[in-house]
Design goal:
By secondary structure, the chain is of the alpha/beta class. The chain is built from 9 helices and 12 strands.
Length: 298
């Protein structure tokens, strides 16, 4: 069995039909069916069962699919590494970022583009789990995220370069006129506010950090809304619905006259930030140099 046959097999598994797979592979259906039969005979196992008009993987097929995906990724990665030795710093740099870290990108991208104008960018946004999956699939080169990184992959599988920590600040509606002339507040003042918190079913560390700091100051926040979107929380605050505590850098991505940022006088808790990439895997020169552009600021 060779790489070509593995690609045939994965396409059939993806499409669930030999006919559709053949169209994607720009080949006729009978030769593809023969290739599948040849693979099953060579392995001595059945890879698919018929389910109506479609095909479903057997247990043996599922195992081969997992192994084949890994082998093809390694093969493609090796080809990219060989080509990259001669390419220099060019091509598409794919970056993943959580929304609360997007503000860290513009300045570095601007400076990086001045030095490496042949590099273009593709930026994806999502939570830690989604970005971890994209890293594993090699759909992105690196991730900028809050630390610790909450993804399914074991932390030891990532290389992590910490960036300067980000202090938390309170964010309240500008319509709360009693705070019009103030630049700071105390933690216990947050106890009186309807509280909005950034949280998803899978990413909870920042939420827990804020709640634990509130408890350390003797109260549990009155949480009226949990939300996975920074933008939605900001819009709710702008309407006067409640307040939140966010890393300070978030505010530069949401310039607004309808929310007010206040420092927290009696708390010095920080949000960790870092750049992550897969350890022991090929990293294009463009990604290496982009990481270096942050390293000079650390």
């Amino acid at each position: 069995m060779d790489m070509r046959q593995l690609k045939y097999f994965l396409t059939i598994a993806q499409e669930g039909q030999v006919t559709r797979a053949a169209k994607l592979l720009n080949m006729e259906q009978p030769p593809l069916s023969r290739q599948l039969k040849q693979m099953e005979e060579e392995l001595g196992v059945k890879l698919f069962e018929r389910n109506g008009k479609g095909l479903i993987l057997t247990d043996s097929g599922e195992l081969l699919k997992k192994k084949a995906e890994s082998l093809l990724l390694q093969f493609d990665e090796s080809l990219r590494e060989v080509k990259g030795m001669e390419e220099g710093v060019r091509g598409v740099l794919s970056i993943g970022s959580v929304v609360s870290c997007i503000s860290l990108l513009p300045k570095n991208i601007e400076l990086f583009r001045e030095k490496y104008p042949q590099v273009t960018f593709k930026i994806s946004e999502g939570d830690h789990f989604y970005l971890g999956e994209q890293l594993e699939k090699r759909a992105i080169d690196l991730v900028i995220a809050r630390l610790p990184f909450e993804a399914q992959k074991h932390p030891q599988q990532y290389s992590i370069m910490p960036l300067p920590s980000d202090p938390f600040v309170a964010v309240i509606p500008s319509s709360w006129t009693e705070y019009a002339g103030k630049e700071a507040l105390c933690m216990k003042e947050l106890a009186q506010f309807p509280f909005l918190t950034l949280k998803t079913d899978r990413t909870t560390r920042m939420h827990e950090q804020v709640v634990n700091e509130c408890k350390r100051h003797g109260f549990v926040p009155n949480i009226i809304c949990e939300c996975s979107s920074v933008a939605i929380i900001m819009s709710l605050i702008a309407c006067g619905i409640g307040a939140t505590v966010f890393p300070k850098s978030v505010m530069s991505s949401f310039p607004s006259t309808v929310v007010k940022m206040l420092n927290i006088e009696d708390a010095d808790f920080q949000s960790g930030v870092g750049i992550l990439w897969l350890k022991d895997h090929y990293l294009p020169k463009r990604a290496q140099q982009f990481i270096e552009s942050f390293r000079t600021e650390v």
